[in-house]
Amino acid sequence: MTLREKLVTTRLLEFGLMLSGYFLYSIRWGGENQQILMSLGWLQILTAIYAFLRYSAPTRGITALVIVFGFMGVAQIFYPFAIENANIPGESSQYIEAAVRLYVYLFFVCLHALTVRRQDAQPFVSTFLHLSRLSILIAVGCMLLYWATGIPLLLNFYFSQGIIRPQAFLSEPSAFAPLVGCLLISGWLNNSRKDVAIALAGIAFALSPITILGGIGAFVLYAFLYKTRGALVKGAVIVSCLVAFISVNMMDCTSLVVSESAIDRTLGRVSCGVQVIYDGNLRYALEGIFYNDRLESAIKSVEFLRDTNSVAIGMGLNSSSIFMPELYGEVRENSLWLSTLLFYGVFGVVVFALMCMIGMARMSRATDTIAVIFVAFLVCSTINSAGGFYGYSILLWCITFALSPACRRRRYVLAQNGDRQPNVETASTT
């Protein structure tokens, strides 16, 4: 094995450990509460420290990271006063501990992204795709095992409304959504029928509305951003999305959602989940039959910010992990955008949106394939919270990479005589 091959193998193992928080979230057996939560954030932090010591990171990137997290740290000092004035549940020490815990974790996730060089982007994506294939195949195998023997291994019985669904080692069945999206995009880009088949198997076995919407939505957004050219093609994509949206809204979801067929019930959950957003009468008609927890969490989050006069700046990093359980029980914010709104208010949401848009632009100019993962988690973290910040951190990792010097396209390369010559790869793609 050559030195280069050893380095690639080492990085592949490192990338696998860095993704372990999402792909090895829990081990579940039997009923609802029979599971072990792995909580591998500490392993990800150790992996990031190793990568930084082994490969270092660009000075400009480190400087920018320190400035951003320094600003977050200084801002966090003032939030305990806002929490006390708002008179919400929890002690200041609880909020400080929760903020420090997430602050440290996110810092090292972003630090790891800065250690990734341009030539490491493809191995990172390959590692993610391999883990995605493995997770879906494990899910299919566990479902077949249950049908054959009745052994409930790595299955989900919670929030399933009578539908038993596989989840492999993920947090829940909807966590397959970004995996499905990435495999659909990869199968399309690489003409891989295997990846498309595995992705469709993930959709079929997960029986999750979020997996359907998130997976297909990621594929459509990637095609729209990076693979369509011309107003006519983009218009056709938009029209197709509108037709699909209208079709979903024309379904009689009230009968589908109580159907004995697992497929019909899943379609009903998709349709009802969309329709109750704007149809208040339907929401009340479905009371006791169907519950859109994502809509409920959005309503509760906005009401909380309005009642505490914290719409502009929020309540501080990870604050919702303290007051949401106390105020609303099992209702949690089911979106990274909602979490950002609760943490840093409208100001934080605007800043995060700008980071996402700049990341999209830089990805479209780059020749790496991180955009596949970036788009999938951007879509899925908007409508889902599966895996919590173990999932959100993958999107933040991609954004950090997109904003790092490694993602900058070079227009010139140095020839052997030291003269600058046009980058052939760049010249052929710009």
Describe this structure in words.
There is one protein chain. The chain is mainly alpha-helical. It has one domain (3-172, 294-429). The chain is 68% helix and 4% strand. The chain has 19 helices and 6 strands. It has helices at residues 3-18, 20-23, 41-55, 59-86, 92-115, 121-149, 177-189, 193-206, 209-227, 231-249, 253-256, 262-275, 280-285, 293-307, 320-328, 336-365, 370-383, 389-403, 424-429; strands at residues 26-28, 35-37, 155-156, 165-166, 412-414, 420-422. The protein has a two-stranded antiparallel ribbon with strand order 1-2. A two-stranded antiparallel ribbon has the order 3-4. A two-stranded antiparallel ribbon has the order 5-6. Helix 6 (121-149) packs across helix 7 and helix 9 (209-227) packs across helix 12. It is globular. The model is unreliable at 410-430 (pLDDT under 50). The chain crosses the membrane at residues 12-30, 36-55, 62-83, 95-116, 128-148, 196-225, 231-251, 336-359, 366-384. It comes from Ralstonia flaminis. This is Lipid A core - O-antigen ligase and related enzymes. Keywords: Membrane, Transmembrane, Transmembrane helix.
Tell me the number of structural domains: 1
**What is the β-strand count?**
6
Order the strands across the largest sheet as they lie in space.
Answer: 1-2
- How would you sum up the major sheet? 2 strands, antiparallel
Cα-based radius of gyration, to the nearest Å: 22 Å
Shape: globular
**Average predicted local confidence, pLDDT:** 81
